[in-house]
Design a protein that fits this description.
The chain is mostly helical and 255 residues long. The protein is built from eight helices and two strands; from the N terminus they run H-H-H-E-E-H-H-H-H-H. The longest helix has 63 residues.
């Protein structure tokens, strides 16, 4: 049984998401190797080319129908859970209306406090139960959607939860795709803390770094500034570098 930090059992969803993600990664890997094989066709023997070409094509042709079936199953499960979530929303809204009604009656003096508490107790208990079910359903939907969107790592969950922040993902040709170049982010932050974050598209974080850095620099009139300013400077460069990798991972997952 696989539980997340909220104690929700996601075993079935993680299993389906992992099966899809693992096979998807394998198919993409074989497609990439096939493309590279074609590029070097003239540099190897025909026998070796035909051998590998057949191996790769056989795997791709056998795996894609299975992959499509898994994707259809993901869509079906997401639809079922989304419908269930909508029903839960309606039931929660109905309970909220009933609770609000009892509050109004209490406020108007139409019922006593004891009557109100007796009526509210089962309503509140039902609402908590439904809210718990909704949270569980939402987590299941999120897990399955992550798999469909390519942001689920088998055994580890969403990509942005495990992707090494210092690693920029590679494209299908093996060449790093610097959507946000970590080196540029570091250089900008070297000249002024916060500029690297702004380059990465994290405007709010960048502004906070700039304000903090200015305040720290001004505090160099006192001893504390000589401690905090270098720390902010180094931290700004490190954060800009790691954030660039995360931004790239997110972009890669959507392409």
């Amino acid at each position: 049984m696989e539980n997340n930090e909220q104690g929700i059992d996601l075993t079935a969803e993680n299993d389906l998401a992992s099966r899809f993600a693992e096979l998807y990664i394998q198919v993409k890997d074989y497609e990439s190797k096939l493309a590279k094989l074609v590029q070097i066709k003239e540099q190897i023997s025909n026998d070796r080319f035909n051998e590998l070409n057949k191996e790769y094509l056989d795997f791709i042709n056998q795996s894609k129908p299975v992959l499509n079936d898994l994707e259809d199953l993901l869509s079906k499960k997401i639809k079922e859970l989304s419908d269930k979530e909508s029903v839960l929303d309606n039931e929660i809204n109905l309970l909220d209306s009933q609770i609000d009604q009892e509050k109004k009656m209490l406020g108007a003096g139409a019922i006593s406090k004891a009557e109100y508490e007796n009526k509210l107790k089962p309503l509140d208990s039902s609402r908590k139960s439904l809210s718990s079910k909704k949270v569980s359903t939402s987590r299941r939907i999120s897990t399955l959607r992550n798999a469909k969107e390519g942001t689920f790592k088998p055994g580890k969950g969403p990509i942005l939860d495990w992707w090494p922040p210092w690693k920029t993902p590679e494209g299908p040709d093996g060449i790093p795709k610097f959507y946000k170049n970590p080196s540029i982010a570091v250089v900008l932050s070297f000249f002024w803390a916060g500029l690297g974050q702004i380059y990465n598209g994290q405007i709010g974080k960048g502004v906070i770094f700039i304000i903090a850095y200015v305040a720290s620099a001004l505090s160099m009139l006192m001893v504390i500034g000589f401690v905090t300013t270098p720390i902010l400077w180094v931290w700004g460069m490190y954060d800009a570098y790691t954030s660039a990798g995360k931004v790239n991972a997110k972009i890669m997952a959507r392409t």
